[in-house]
Amino acid sequence: MKKKKNVFIEGEITSDLIARSIAKHQTKTVIGAHNIFLGQVRADEIQGNMVTAIDFSCYREMADEKLDQIREETFAKYNLTCMHIYHSLGEVKAGEVCFFVFVSAPHRPEVYEATEYIVNRVKSEVPIFGKELFAEGEYQWKKNSVSSSQ
Fold it and tell me: In 108-142, which positions are buried (b, 16+ CB within 10 angstroms) versus exposed (e)?
């Protein structure tokens, strides 16, 4: 049985984590291409209120199950060497990274297609919820938008 990947990180995804992830793959000489997607919290203005952070939560058991399914189906669909998905839980301030997808393959076409496929599936299928926090202390639940090109 494969070891389950821990996708969830408390708080922001740091540049140090991203750099370490990249560095770990430099010894894998069968890899010819990497692609990275970073989702960052925007300081949107919504009805006159400025978003200062997003407080992420999830239904963990269902999220882990869905992420495992996405991972297996992505490996079956694309010729990838490695795939890593990380998502924040808890409060992430505007300007901080909350979603990190990193894929590697022998050739570049697979990494571009696989990254978009993974990001769109995570955003549309995984029960991760974001509460947009406003400067005035109020909040609203965030609505995800997903590209239709899956």
Answer: eebbebbbbbbbbbbeeebebebebbbeeeebeeb
Asked whether 90 and 32 are in contact (CB, 8 A), the reply is no
- pLDDT tens figures, 30-44: 999 999 999 999 999
What whole-number distance in Å separates Cα of residue 97 and Cα of residue 106? 27
Spans of all domains in the chain: 8-141
> Do residues 134 and 149 lie in contact, with contact meaning Cβ atoms separated by under 8 Å?
no
CATH superfamily name and code, 8-141 = Molybdopterin biosynthesis MoaE subunit (3.90.1170.40)
Q: Which residue has the tokens 């393959």?
A: 105
Q: What pLDDT is attached to residue 64?
A: 95
